[in-house]
Amino acid sequence: MMKASDLFVQCLEQEGIEYIFGVPGEENADFMMSLEKSSSITFVLTRHEQGAAFMAEVYGRLTGNPACCLGTLGPGATNLITGVADSNMDRAPMLVLTGQGATTRLHKESHQIMDAVQMFQPVTKWATSILHADTIPETIRKAVRLARTEKPGAVHIELPEDVAKMETTAKPLDPKRFRRPVTDDKIVNRAFDLIKAAKQPVIIAGNGCIRRRASKQLRLLCDLTGIGVISTFMAKGAVDKDADYCLYTVGLGKKDRVNCAIDDADLVITLGLDMVEYHPKLWNPGGDKAVIHADFLPAEIDAHYHPEVELVGDLAHTLWMFNERVQALGSSARLKLDRQLRIREEMTADLEEYKDDDTSGSIRPQKAIWDARDVMGPDDILLSDVGAHKMWIARHYHCHQPNTCLIPNGFCSMGFALPGAIAASLVYPDRNVLAIAGDGGFLMNVQEMETARRLNCNMVVMVWEDSAYGLIAWKQDDHFKRHTDLSFDNPDWMQLASAFGWHGHHVEESKRLKVVLASALQEQGPSLVVIPIDYRENPLLSQKLGELTCPI
């Protein structure tokens, strides 16, 4: 016999869970006492449940395995939900653990009681409550399997306080993992016939391509054929940014240079693309493009997305099947795509325009991103918060390896970068970790500065200060030629850094930024780098993209 909370922890151990991030409460006290005895699971006490959820999300995105975020009932559960929704929509595996009052009081009005399971259902793959101790092994096995299964996401388990105290003779289940289903040879042949007949094919790589097996096979396909790859925000690094076939990133909502390659294409191959990443109405407004859909799941039904062929199954295996067929063709598989190369050259020139900028008082976004890329190695990890800086990171920061630039894209929540950087530093303590946040997003989870200091995380957060919600101002200006009052005041950043025991740097001169960033990345413990950002560049970029014409 053992206590249910002990069994719960043993089941998590059996599943290989390494981290639980959270804020415990009275209703999960038994679970916490059981967790304290674990030798393989690390509990990270956070300063807010939302920070815990973002930490678990980033762990899941970087490893492909779930971590847990934990809150108690009521406000503890509601505080988790933003990070949980962000994780689920961006396809990160996660277990969400919440406490609950005793089952003897759930049928009536009672202190802090609310239906957390029903609340989590819209933002998880599955949400359930443990009603009997003997069901714990099956529930956790199912939860982890669902969280990991393509497309990955969040799963919620509620453990009422009286159930946690129950005695049980149940034992953890042994996890068994199987190969994913693969697409049929005949369907791959149909798709490959379309590729062979195409003169100007292009690939749009989505979230599914950042899995390393998929990225490896995609790179091989492009090495053999030369087909250009346009990445969504989520797919950065699926192909190396220095490869001739890398056409950079799409998804700003405005037509950019890389959109010209889609306009020009007689076949668009979408790989692991979630519709939320870049909606087809933006790149296929007439709904008349020939499309091959390759993904783990069938295509979403949409008026602007009618694939000629659907390749449903393990994406890496689908790409491997393509590569078998390409290799059989030999040198004749190589396409001459000069127009795609010209688009890459023009975009590269955009990225390099301000690399030697030498201004004082404020720093251009393009220069800040260039310097960040310059000091970061191929395997180092950059995390973006949400704000105007996200648009600049999306357009100007490009990667050598998958999963080295993490951007909230689907649910698109502010407050992601600081707690996310903590998790990244735990997963990869030997890599540089740099988070970029606006002053608005950074202060939304500023309390986690204490968590970073307590854990002595080696990480840098660069805050772009404009004392306003800059992205909202940018969008209002685009639509209405003016914006509402979106300004606010900020703390003394260096005093803030000192109060939390962080290293602090304030940089106003462009020529100093690279040196300061490189130095901060070498400091022991967390560092804050604050720069006044020149968002006068925002409308200039809008104007530039609005006047863009595609090469003939």
From TrEMBL:
Thiamine pyrophosphate enzyme N-terminal TPP-binding domain ranges (all copies): 2-119
One Gene Ontology biological process: L-valine biosynthetic process
GO CC terms of this entry: acetolactate synthase complex
NCBIfam families in alphabetical order: PRK08322.1
Thiamine pyrophosphate enzyme central domain ranges (all copies): 188-320
Source species: Pseudohalioglobus lutimaris
Similarity section: Belongs to the TPP enzyme family.
Secretion signal, residue range per the UniProt entry: none
Gene3D superfamilies recorded: 3.40.50.970, TPP-binding domain (3.40.50.1220)
Protein name per Swiss-Prot or TrEMBL: Acetolactate synthase large subunit
One MF annotation (Gene Ontology) recorded for this entry: flavin adenine dinucleotide binding
Every Thiamine pyrophosphate enzyme TPP-binding domain range: 385-531
InterPro entries on file: DHS-like_NAD/FAD-binding_dom (IPR029035), THDP-binding (IPR029061), Thiamin_PyroP_enz_cen_dom (IPR012000), Thiamin_PyroP_enz_TPP-bd_dom (IPR012001), TPP-bd_CS (IPR000399), TPP_enz (IPR045229), TPP_enzyme_TPP-bd (IPR011766)
Protein origin, superkingdom: Bacteria
Alphabetically ordered keywords of this record: Thiamine pyrophosphate
